Amino acid sequence: MELGLTNADATGIDARLIERATRDLPDGLTLLDAEQRVVFWNARAEALLSVPAHAILGQPIDGVIARVAAQTSAPNTTRTQLRAALIDRDPDRFVEMEIVADDKDAARIISARVFSWQDADGAGIVWRDVTRERTADAMKSQLLSTVSHELRTPLASIKGFATTLLRQDVKWDEATQRDFLRIIEEESDRLTEIIDNLLDMSQIEAGALRVAKEPTQLRQLIREVVDELRMRTEAHYFVVDLPAELPRVLIDPRRIRQVLTNLISNAIKYSQKGQITVSCEIEEEYVVVSVADQGEGIPQEYLGKIFERFFQVDGASTRRVGGSGLGLAISRGIIEAHDGKIWVESVAGQGSTFRFTLPIARAEPVEQEVSNE
Ligand code: ADP
Prior knowledge:
With 373 residues, this protein is α+β, with helices and mostly antiparallel strands. The chain has three domains: 8-129, PAS domain (Beta-Lactamase); 134-205, Signal transduction histidine kinase, dimerisation/phosphotransfer (DHp) domain (Helix Hairpins, Orthogonal Bundle); 214-368, 2-Layer Sandwich (Heat Shock Protein 90). Helices cover 43% and strands 21% of the residues. The chain has helices at 8-11, 15-22, 43-49, 53-56, 61-69, 75-88, 131-166, 174-205, 218-230, 253-269, 316-321, 327-337, and strands spanning 28-32, 38-41, 94-99, 108-117, 122-129, 214-216, 236-241, 249-251, 274-283, 286-292, 342-347, 351-359. A five-stranded antiparallel β-sheet has the order 2-1-5-4-3, with helices on both faces. The chain has a five-stranded mixed β-sheet with strand order 7-9-10-12-11. A hairpin with a 3-residue loop joins strand 11 (342-347) and strand 12 (351-359). Helix 7 (131-166) packs antiparallel against helix 8 (174-205) and helix 9 runs parallel beside helix 10. The longest helix is centred in the middle third of the chain and has 36 residues, at 131-166. Adenosine-5'-diphosphate is lined by residues 262, 266-267, 270, 293, 295-298, 306, 311-313, 318, 323-329, 352.
């Protein structure tokens, strides 16, 4: 790899010194002489812009700019902006460009900044990878728009029904009043749920999710969650399939209840009818818990994405059933805080099975079967 300078004598700069000084520089660095030719191009610039130093050392910067711009999502704009920045040499001016890649996730956002050196004869360009910052910015705006949209829907409903009830020109009978109040109560619960989800998500992202682990009987916990959720649907029937002997697991029962509730609620939401099976298997140091439905399933291309926050499969049923796309991201955060794994197997049109692992609480008495469903 050639990183040295050409025209070093002409520019009077010490190639080796600069190369040593910039070897571990996290930014790409380009130096130009008074004739606008590239005299230095460090390793980081090679990596960021996929342009090897040997191909451009000694070349006029104009051609190099064209080569860099050609890799971006807006070649003409990038070329014009970079040229203008080289003329201005305003250190406060940033040129941002998106370097495209076949794999969308490998696309990078690079920010370029021009400065002067050698009594303003020479110029330099610093290339910085700002992909992470820009992704965080995009996530923040997405968060804000999702949150406001999600909060607005139940709020509008609460406001609407409260206003209706307060109208003085209409006398509502008692049954209608109760109906309206029930809706207000349900929508308030929905608001609380969204806010709780957002708080959980921010704790997970800050790595601050606290889990209070204690040896817990999974059998009882699963039964309680299933009993609570089966009241919400008449179109589904539940099968709980647990081994005769189920060791206690070391978990935060409140948090694992939340995961199970999420997965079973999804099984209800994303299948119109049919069987929902909750089962457990023992595998070495873990209990593997599964929640299976016979619903619409998840297309192959989305399987890797559904645990990402705010991700929803773009289909009719997601719109119909609502939801914020946070449930699975939170579930994954909770399971990982238990040193477990969570994954999904699904065939579109045939149903989905979500599985997660929980650590067995060692040296604990084995839980005896009471009855099986
Ligand atoms: P939400 O249900 O609030 O949209 P989740 O994070 O729980 O958010 O789920 C993310 C997405 O994964 C859902 O929007 C849905 O598209 C898909 N999904 C989750 N569970 C299932 C399931 N059991 N069957 C089919 N699709 C599912």
